[in-house]
Amino acid sequence: MEAVTQALLLQADRDDPALGARRAAAGAADPFLPLSAKEAAASEEGRQRTLTTLLEKVEGCRDLLPESPGKYLVYNGDLVEYDADHMAQIQRVHAFLMNDCLLVATALPSRRGAYRYDALYPLDGLAVVNVKDNPPMKDMFKLLMFPESRIFQAENAKIKKEWLEVLEETKRNRALSEKRRLEQEALPRPAPAPPESTNPFDEEEDEEEEEEPSAEEEVVDLSLEWIQELPEDLDVCIAQRDFEGAVDLLDKLNEYLGDKPVSQPVKELRAKVDERVRQLTDVLVFELSPDRSLRGGPRATRRAVSQLIRLGQSTKACELFLKNRAAAVQTAIRQLRIEGATLLYIHKLCHVFFTSLLETAREFETDFAGNNGCYSAFVVWARSSMRMFVDAFSKQVFDSKESLSTAAECVKVAKEHCKQLSEIGLDLTFVIHALLVKDIKGALQSYKDIIIEATKHRNSEEMWRKMNLMTPEALGKLREEMRSCGVGNFDQYTGDDCWVNLSYTVVAFTKQTMAFLEEALKLYFPELHMVLLESLVEIILVAVQHVDYSLRCEQDPEKKAFIRQNASFLYETVLPVVEKRFEEGVGKPAKQLQDLRNASRLMRVNPESTTSVV
What we know:
Blueprint: H1 2-15, H2 17-29, H3 37-55, E1 58-59, E2 73-82, E3 89-98, E4 101-107, E5 115-122, E6 127-131, E7 140-145, E8 148-153, H4 157-186, H5 200-211, H6 225-228, H7 230-239, H8 243-256, H9 264-288, H10 302-310, H11 314-334, H12 342-367, H13 375-397, H14 404-418, H15 429-460, E9 466-468, H16 472-484, E10 499-503, H17 504-523, H18 529-553, H19 557-586, H20 591-598
Parallel strand pairs: 1-5
Antiparallel strand pairs: 2-3, 2-8, 3-4, 4-5, 6-7, 7-8, 9-10
Helix pairs in contact: 1-2, 1-3, 7-8, 7-9, 9-10, 10-11, 11-12, 11-13, 12-13, 12-14, 13-15, 14-15, 14-17, 15-17, 15-18, 17-18, 17-19, 18-19, 19-20
């Protein structure tokens, strides 16, 4: 490369011997003396020809670098590129530094001295950072160009120093030339002289116009150093993930230009800044994407959310924050181990989900305190998250055909955790009811069918005999069970020793029905009122119709008296207990149960029939 440069300079001297003599004399006397206009033009022409000669050896850059009179080569050399994360050598490159951009090319192994285009970076968006030596990694520097950064290694410390100095100097010269251009454009241009008029009234109008100053005469001073360096400083802040610093710079600029007129230089500056704002927004959006690490809880998103809000992107910040938290909650639920005991798993599931929902709500309230319009989006998100929770809940509780008592305990746990949200003024109880009503209806009807089938089976084997519990312990246990069912006068149905003056079928029906009612009341909410009431009526009808049918079909007087005693127990003891417990659990009486108790015969059957009709 140096040989080519020298050859071109010698060729210029041969073309104009006088120019060569003057250049030699000027160099001998004082190498820093300015060249004359002709000499400067010749030097400029030589640098452009050198740039053209060098770039002819780079494939693929001819269309990217259109020839312009002001573009020339400043510096070039070989470098080695390293991976920024693992510091592994990637490739050997050749860099061409021009007065307005940096061209990076890779060597072609098949052609010596030839290169292929790799990248082109304008100096306006390029930041140079020195990399401290950390043997064996030394003589390196980093180039920051949003959204990427590249690390290069020079041949030695001297060349590295030259690269750093010439890059900074070229960037500085570029900024100064841009500053001078903006100052020239900002200068008010003299208006063309109006043609002379012979109308005497025009003079009066001109005097009036001169008295009214135009607002356009105000010039916006963009020559301040911090304004000139603003685009580059924004690039550095974005590359170094200093989001707060970048937004502070934007706020400072907006405050400075707030009451200034919009001139052409201001528009150009705004265009450059708007591009950086888009880049900053993209980075912040990526920070909130679910692809990033979800660890750290809701507070980990506060930094990106707050800066997006400062940029006027509240809606986008709200949307991305909620998407991030939805992914985090879903991941936490998926990572739960399904334990052998369903109730244990539901306890863990409710703790994970409702704790995450509560933390998200508090963080949302902190981040979006001044944006009331975003709260409706949070409520919609909470509802969709609740649907995800109910899917996991139902799959474990209802799809696995757990017993009604287990399902009731699990629903009770979920309701208790849901009430915790009232601490922040959020009530989702109605949501969980609406989402669970279908599964709970199915569970109630399924358990009702099981009780009916079991009662029918016992009825088919009914012999209408008194129960003999054999031991006082068994009799005491039965008394306790009936007392827990609400039957307080059970002692009047007990006989001598361990006898009970009731049929086994009626006692078993009483215990099963009361257990069903207790578990169903744990699951109860208004949407389930009719389902529960109809299920109870169907269950009671099976037992009552069987007693009624047996009473009319039995011919033995002793057995008939025993059947009447069982019927009296059902009508006068069991049905009032069921009615009372239902009213306590629901809060209002059930007319259907009252009618059922008051009727002596609920269904007329053919007295001559020998089969039970239900």
